[in-house]
Amino acid sequence: MNGAEGNPAAEAKPVEDVQGDMRWMSQHIRFVQECKDAEPDVLFVGDSMVQLMRQYEIWTEFFSPLHALNFGIAGDTTCNVLWRLQNGELDNIRPKVVVLWVGTNNHEHTAEQVAGGILAIGQVLISRLPKAKLVVLGVLPRGERPNPLRAKNAAINGFLRLWLPQLGQSKAQLLDVSKEFVHSDGTINPRDMFDFLHLTASGYRIIAKPLSDLLLQILEETPEERRASLV
């Protein structure tokens, strides 16, 4: 199941507008418009884990200086992200790195299917942006205590470790910090995840530093060089 064929998590689909306010499509259209003017070095794409980054200082501190675009939409699945990327959100931009963070909302799919959906997104990104590198963030644990969804998300990350090398060792890599959120007694602290799913400011800091270091390494810039370029 490490490919798109026959995998429901790798079928490109827009979000059904059940509320009737066109919010999801409006956000997608805004992202397509941003592509016409922006020249990002880094593109973030995914669900609410990506979207909410912009509300915290870590975005301004770590990622805005990297000329980053944030194309996160809350509730998105691999199917929705795949549709967005195939319908304008990669037009006119040539980022050097794409950060992909999605999968925790794929409730209808198995861990194997979700990982296959993420791989399918990676294949689209590498096909459309052949010079870009891909960083896939591991799906985080969820729930205050051990539960089936945690086990599923851990399995997704396991499949990703096996399958991402198919995209090319120099093209794609997994950054998985999920173990940093689980204490020795198996609990997650609400100081890191306020609802045991979405991250707080301190929770985002757990991932921001290793991700920033990796992005700077890929961009071949030290923090000092990046700061100097902004002066």
TrEMBL record:
Record GO terms (molecular function): 1-alkyl-2-acetylglycerophosphocholine esterase activity; platelet-activating factor acetyltransferase activity
Stretches assigned to the SGNH hydrolase-type esterase domain: 44-206
Pfam families assigned to the protein according to its UniProt record, in alphabetical order: Lipase_GDSL_2
Organism superkingdom: Eukaryota
Primary gene name: pafah1b2
Catalytic activity: 1-O-hexadecyl-2-acetyl-sn-glycero-3-phosphocholine + H2O = 1-O-hexadecyl-sn-glycero-3-phosphocholine + acetate + H(+); 1-O-hexadecyl-2-acetyl-sn-glycero-3-phosphoethanolamine + H2O = 1-O-hexadecyl-sn-glycero-3-phosphoethanolamine + acetate + H(+); a 1-O-alkyl-2-acetyl-sn-glycero-3-phosphocholine + H2O = a 1-O-alkyl-sn-glycero-3-phosphocholine + acetate + H(+); 1-O-hexadecyl-2-acetyl-sn-glycero-3-phosphate + H2O = 1-O-hexadecyl-sn-glycero-3-phosphate + acetate + H(+)
Database matches in InterPro entries: SGNH_hydro, SGNH_hydro_sf
GO cellular component: cytoplasm
GO BP, sorted A to Z: lipid catabolic process
Homology family: Belongs to the 'GDSL' lipolytic enzyme family. Platelet-activating factor acetylhydrolase IB beta/gamma subunits subfamily.
Keywords per UniProt: Cytoplasm, Hydrolase, Lipid degradation, Lipid metabolism
EC number: 3.1.1.47
Gene3D superfamilies, A to Z: SGNH hydrolase (3.40.50.1110)
This protein's name: Platelet-activating factor acetylhydrolase IB subunit alpha2
Subcellular location: Cytoplasm
Source organism of the structure: Gouania willdenowi
